[in-house]
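Form 7-S
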Amino acid sequence: MNRGQRDQQEKKQEDTVAQFIQERFENDIPARSLTDGVTDYVFRCIQGPFAGNFIYLNLTEEGELIGSDPQADYTLLIENAGLSAQHTKINYTMDDNQYGYFIKDLNSEKGTWIKTKPGHLIQIEDEQIFRIEDQVFQFRLIEDENFDVVVEWLARIELKKVIIKLKSYNIKTLKDIKQLQPNIIDEIIDDEDEKIRFKQAFDTIDQDFPVDGKQKTLLIYSITQDEVLAKVKWSGAAITRSSEMGEISGIDKYGVDCNQKFEMIIQFYFNRYYFHVTPKAPGQIYLKLYGNYKLSPDDIVNIGNLDFQVQRFNTGLWSDKGTRMTMEDRSVISQSIPISRYFSVSYFAVFDGHGGDQCAQFLYETLGEKLKEEFMNSEEYLDDTEFFYQYIYEKLVYIINDIDQQFWQYRMNDQDNNSDSGSAGVIILIFGTKLISVNVGDCRAVLSRQGKPVALTVDHKPNEEKERQRIMKAGGTVDGNRVNKKLAVSRAFGDFSFKKETTGNMDIVTVNPDIRVWDIDFMVDEFIVLGCDGLFDMFNNQQVVEYVRERLIENQITEQDPQKVARQICLDAVEISKQQKRGSDNCSVIIILLTRGIINTDKIFLQ
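Output:
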């Protein structure tokens, strides 16, 4: 049975399809009304001798006590992994002031460490200890009598070159700068852009910089080497791998000998020092834990020789290139996008590249950051909208089209790349309990509701009547279920030889997405499966749901591992394709569990 026959059979069996989000505009809701529902965080070991093992964190008062003493009463006993007898504890707290999972170190010998997240701004505290791979450092804030506030302020706004002119007016303090008359500023600075930058910093000088008192220099002290690595003032600095120092310009830089590439940027804002690690080079940077720390999805916790990831949803991901020469698929799991103070947001995606991996790789690297950027830096924040569905629809349509244009510009700037790469893509965003699916092409997402499939997406294929009419109206043809006898999908990222950038007319292949919505009910909704056509060419929606469900319920409720099942179904799809076609496409799958586990009702009935 080919895919077309399977899909026809599926249409007879399956009536449930997620609703287009536009259908909810008439009865829209404010974003602040969304909630997370009840989800139990997962604590999954991702590095060390117990990698792959996981537990669901308890919501009980006792919480999770983690240590290595076999005689003690632990909820998680871990031996031979460098843990202290009593190492750390995780409790769920819920009161009027705060709620969530909190972790605390129990005076362990090696400590409990939290890995820094790329792009997250972290306030630097005095005597705070951090680690870069196996080297330990400490931040130290010291009063500095030789601190020249005028020089540092000018350096901070990248106008250090006017220091001589400024000091000729007997300017010695920030208070003196505040007394400057506009005509003097015009005399000191000639360049109009620099003048604007000076005046902007001038207007916010009270909130950004301490006008009174002794100023503090930030020392970065190497505990491992017993020496000062860096002295940092208001102009900031970059700490990076020694061999990469030449790649950074315009800022003081200091090198650390280590294996992985990393980039730590230190800056001064609002009278405090902060740092962040860049997404392009996050490295292995951990902060030592003191007191209680609120866990959030995607946090990585180091205890002993083990790294654990905190997951909002228990997930599995597997990819296989099949018999193809190259792997053109890309997959993304981001358990937390910090864009709301009311509810959690998670992002999952599978991108199925064709004509090379350039487009899928570009989406993999940029789309997640684009989502954060648009939701955080818009004129109206997500939390403030009174029309959640319309807001989400308009934002996502803009983001998808804009990222496609960014890829076009990227291709134009890359003189060495003449390929017309493209990609299908399926994206799942979970806003609290609202599931939003975004589909371009023939990747799919399906949800299991008590074993019954819910189609979260519908394929964009050229033989579908609506798609065929649009293609022909734009000047294209549909022949042998392909656009212009070439492309097997009617919508895609990239593929600019089919778009107005190349044709000069209408888009024969469009990037406009279908966006659908589903209300998650954690009592009956079990899991979500995302996959490329390498999976869904071999299994229809019902078969995928049955396959995943059957293999999950082979294990007890809290031991059902989506990672193992993702691997199984991906490898089986590749093997079936080899038998049927004497070859196989790339195959990628993500499985997202919405519950601690599925109850095997047949087993209960037999018992």
